[in-house]
Specification:
This protein folds into 2 domains: about 425 residues, Growth Hormone, Chain: A; about 40 residues, no CATH class. Helix content is about 60%, strand content about 0%. A two-stranded parallel sheet has the order 1-2. This is Protein spinster homolog 1.
Length: about 575
């Protein structure tokens, strides 16, 4: 061999400084790793799991010894201010405004659950029709989320949120004036409320991601997701208390529209649009440009951490959606069976403190669970890079038996039921902020709104869009098979809610699957943002002349399903077990 290096015909995507074997046409050549010239033009963000190099990225910024390639820079406070153009105080104020709106959204969503027995009496409907109220809203929210996800990756996010929240406030106010014989109109207005929620939920987390990085981002996301359980609990409390004060459940739906007007004003006056992905790029990295919608979908579909974590979050949505609508009604029926509360009769207002108590439990368990999950994950992350999905799995698997016990004990002791609900909801709430953090670090910035949108679609389509209706439908079917009584109403809802414990266990299994892929997907996204993904390298010489062991049949089978198309390292059929740690896809 001469002193000149032979570059492989197929470019390969590996980390600089790593050792790599490339099979040539005639023989194997081993040469020191070299880098090409840095890119000078903006990159079009093609599929970050593509087989070839990223278009428009002919070289790698930096040098072989640059630590940026191994450990991405975490900007300090001054660095963040320089990159985003916003002071730390202004960034924190923006997060506070986003938290207020998130709290308001969930407060409105669960105000209906707080007055559900009164709505059933007013419109004279059964459990399955009551479940449709939440199902129609979630279905609309789910359908519109991809639209706002696409727009949020390409247009000004501040104005998209302002328009959606203003429309949501108007429709919510209109839903409080629907007459008794127009139940279908209530369903229509609750469906239109999904416009505002879709415009906000898909966009707000990406704003936080563009303001903070690393542990700062995790902390801010935990603050942001505190608003979900707190807002849900306030919805129960506000709904039941406003109804008691006004003597009419319609007034419970007239509280949040006024607060929504305040939210629009705060968005206009406080929030500024930060540059997308700037806090995660190196100073010499080319800027990120969006790609087509189909390219985004293909990249997300080939991201196993995103898919599996979304399935796990779907189980969380199924359980929380079912409990949110049916837990107060179930607790009321339990008290009726125990003789502690008189039953709701047609024409009378339902008198029960269960909505208030369940709202307080939701607030407390949400704050405790979100904070506990983020802190445990942050500490475990120092020694285990798979800590995030493992904490989520522990939360779901741990909540399942406590939810089952809360249902089983309801006929004997309402106090024991509340205790088990408290523990189960605390464990469930550990997932909220961690799942959002997983999405933000395994997906590149120009696809995050789209990823948020499709996580919403998946989690609601298989989760809380149908779970309230499904629980109500099972309850009605069981109740019709037994003689009419208050006990049969209680038992029917009790047995149908036991489905939640089983779904929670399935979600825990999905998060365990996420732990298998999380390291590779996170590293791939980091390299892509820094302009170091899909670049041609010449491999270093081997450390030993020992022939590598052939890959196992199991590994080749995994590659067949996870790696369609040619091997990005140029191995083809000559893939060996020694190459597995270097594979950018596994």
């Amino acid at each position: 061999m001469t002193g000149r290096a032979r570059v492989p015909s197929q470019p390969c995507s590996v980390l600089p400084g790593k050792r790599l074997r490339v099979s040539g046409r005639n023989s194997l050549a081993w040469v020191p790793s070299i880098l090409l010239s840095p890119a000078s033009s903006p990159r079009s963000q093609a599929d970050d799991t593509d087989d070839g190099p990223v278009p428009g990225t002919p070289g790698l910024p930096g040098s072989l010894g640059n630590s940026k390639s191994e450990d991405p820079e975490v900007p300090d406070r001054e660095g963040l201010q320089r990159i985003t153009g916003l002071s730390p105080g202004r960034s924190a104020l923006i997060v506070a405004v986003l938290c207020y709106i998130n709290l308001l959204n969930y407060m409105d969503r669960f105000t209906v659950a707080g007055v559900l027995p009164d709505i059933e009496q007013f419109f004279e409907i059964g459990d399955s029709s009551s479940g449709l109220i939440q199902t129609v809203f979630i279905s609309s929210y789910m359908v519109l989320a991809p639209v706002f996800g696409y727009l949020g990756d390409r247009y000004n996010r501040k104005y998209l949120m302002c328009g959606g929240i203003a429309f949501w406030s108007l429709v919510t106010l209109g839903s409080s004036f629907i007459p008794r014989e127009r139940f279908w109109l209530l369903l229509l207005t609750r469906g239109l409320v999904g416009v505002g929620e879709a415009s906000y939920s898909t966009i707000a987390p990406t704003l936080i991601a563009d303001l903070f990085v690393a542990d700062q981002r995790s902390r801010m996301l935990s603050v942001f997701y505190f608003a979900i359980p707190v807002g849900s609990g306030l919805g129960y409390i506000a709904g039941s208390k406003v109804k008691d004060v006004a003597g009419d459940w319609h007034w419970a739906l007239r509280v949040t529209p006024g607060l929504g007007v305040v939210a629009v004003l705060l968005l206009f006056l406080v929030v500024r649009e930060p540059p997308r992905g700037a806090v995660e790029r190196h100073s010499d990295s080319p800027p990120l440009n969006p790609t087509s919608w189909w390219a985004d979908l293909r990249a997300l579909a080939r991201n196993p951490s995103f898919i599996l974590s979304s399935l796990g979050f779907t189980a969380v949505a199924f359980v929380t959606g079912s409990l949110a609508l049916w837990a107060p009604a179930f607790l009321l029926r339990s008290r009726v069976v125990l003789g502690e509360t008189p039953p709701c009769l047609p024409g009378d207002s339902c008198s029960s403190s269960d909505s208030l108590i369940f709202g307080l439990i939701t607030c407390l368990t949400g704050v405790l669970g979100v904070g506990l999950g983020v802190e445990i994950s942050r500490r475990l992350r120092r020694s285990n890079p798979r800590a995030d999905p493992l904490v989520c799995a522990a939360g779901l698997l741990g909540s399942a038996p406590f939810l089952f016990l809360s249902l089983a004990c309801a006929r004997g002791s309402i106090v024991a039921t509340y205790i088990f609900i408290f523990i189960g909801e605390t464990l469930l709430s550990m997932n909220w902020a961690i799942v959002a953090d997983i999405l933000l670090y395994v997906v590149i910035p120009t696809r995050r709104s789209t990823a948020e949108a499709f996580q919403i679609v998946l989690s609601h389509l298989l989760g809380d869009a149908g779970s309230p209706y499904l629980i109500g439908l099972i309850s009605d079917r069981l109740r019709r098979s037994w003689p009419p009584s208050f006990l049969s109403e209680f038992r029917a809802l009790q047995f149908s809610l036991m489905l939640c414990a089983f779904v929670g266990a399935l979600g825990g299994a999905a998060f365990l699957g996420t732990a298998i892929f999380i390291e590779g997907d996170r590293r791939r996204a980091q390299l892509h943002v820094q302009g170091q993904w899909g670049l041609p390298f010449v491999p270093p010489p081997p450390a030993t002349t020992m022939a590598p062991r052939p890959a196992s049949r199991y590994y080749l089978l995994v590659r067949l399903f996870l790696c369609p198309g040619p091997c990005p390292l140029g191995f083809g059929s000559a893939c060996h077990r020694a190459d597995i740690p270097l594979c950018p896809r596994l």
